[in-house]
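User: Teach me something about this protein's shape.
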Amino acid sequence: MSGGIFLSRVTGLARDVALAAFLGTGLVADAYWAAIKIPNIIRNLLGEGTLSAAFVPVYSETLQKHGASSSQSTRLASSVLGIVLTAAVLLSTLGVLIAPWLTSAIMIGAGEESRRITTELVRIFFPMSGVLIVGAWFLGVLNSHGRFFLPFVAPTVWNLAQIGGLFWAYAIGSDRFAHALAWSALVGSILQVGIQIPTARRLNGSLRPTGGWSWEPVRRIVRNTIPVISSQGIFQISTLVDISLATLVGTSAMSALGYSQRLMYLPISLFGIAVAAASLPHMSREATAARLRPRLVNGFFQILFFVLPAAVCFLLFGDLIIRVVYQRGAFSESSTTLVAAVLATYALGLVASSSLKLFASGFHALQDTRTPMMLAAVSISVAIGAAVVLTLSARARLPLPYRPYAAMGIALGGAIGAWLNLLLLWRFLAKRLGGLFETAALKATVRLAAAVAVAAIAASAVRGWLDPRMLGHGFLYDLALLLAVGAAGAVPYLLIARRPPVILSEEPLSEG
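Assistant: First, the predicted structure itself:
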């Protein structure tokens, strides 16, 4: 799974490099980042997270009881496919129709030109989000059958299509790069889903959508879906508030959030989502405390092993990373400084953000989707309140040229909400399953913290010594410095931490 995600994220990073070079952090870039987030609301409501939480546990249970080739599993998957297709078509169509009013309601601080461009892009991105909702069904089916690489590497096609669209626009002399990006994203989404069709048909036996609500497993999935959608809806409210706050802050704030979030999603996807998605089918097949506790605790420390140094790297060396990745073409030095500040703020919540899906999956394996919904509601409410207060306070105090830096308040509010959500999930799961953080876990935490502290000191020392001695400036010099800093930190970290700690041993699955 991590291999598939790695390839998709590498190509995604290449797409963002091209995007930054062509769009930078100006008005059109802000319009693009707002436009892709607005239709993603329906994708996040009904996509990977919802189907993984509601569909995968019931479908995995059916596979366990009746076998992979049974008519029961085929019927269940086909029924859910019919429901998903219907919802995707209706919501995508509605989004295209109400795009002007939706954009105006959300982008309260944007000018007329920015709203116009955003509306045009939103009308292209809504159908794309509908296609990707259907793609989430394929991901759920393939994951339940133990196929992880294909559904997670499939977004590579989506990314490559967008890169091709940007260079096609450049080749024909067009300056409508954001529109080229949107249309190529729609084409790429169709290709992303298309390459999964043969494998899904072979595993499921049929891809004929049937729908129908009367069968008990389907009703159970629908019942489980409602709280998950409510929970995801809370997160989407947070996204809408972030967009509104960014438009109030001013030009470049929205794109600074977008670029920094893309870098943040790299470790979250590679480790947080990968560990959670790989664990959920196994936890769902025998959801007992003896099985869940080791999966959750060991999964958390597996995430922590990789994500903690990434967080420190973003915090201390984000400017260097952004210079190497983004700074070229329309993306200037001032853009680097702004995005690095926002990225460093997001990094404060990276460990928590990466772990949320794993601990929510613990409840989903128990087919309890209501508890994580309620905990998310509390956490997101706090995050929104903190973001509003911090951002508007900073906006009022900062001089006009530095006002985009008020977007750091949005990032800090998100970090606060992520940590609160993780602590609540941890506490409520511990009540259900028994203690999750015992002596062995404390020792492992101290060891990882010590390792990352030594690594940070070593990397900072190397940068402090090398930076003033570099013979020039530019991409190759920045890349060489980044590699040297990375090596200086990686060696002591791996020597001290060695490998992801295993805190609890897993009991074998029972027979039957």
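Now, about its shape. Confidence is low (pLDDT under 50) at residues 508-512. DSSP finds 19 helices and no strands in the chain. If you'd like, I can walk through any region in more detail.
User: That's plenty for now, thanks!
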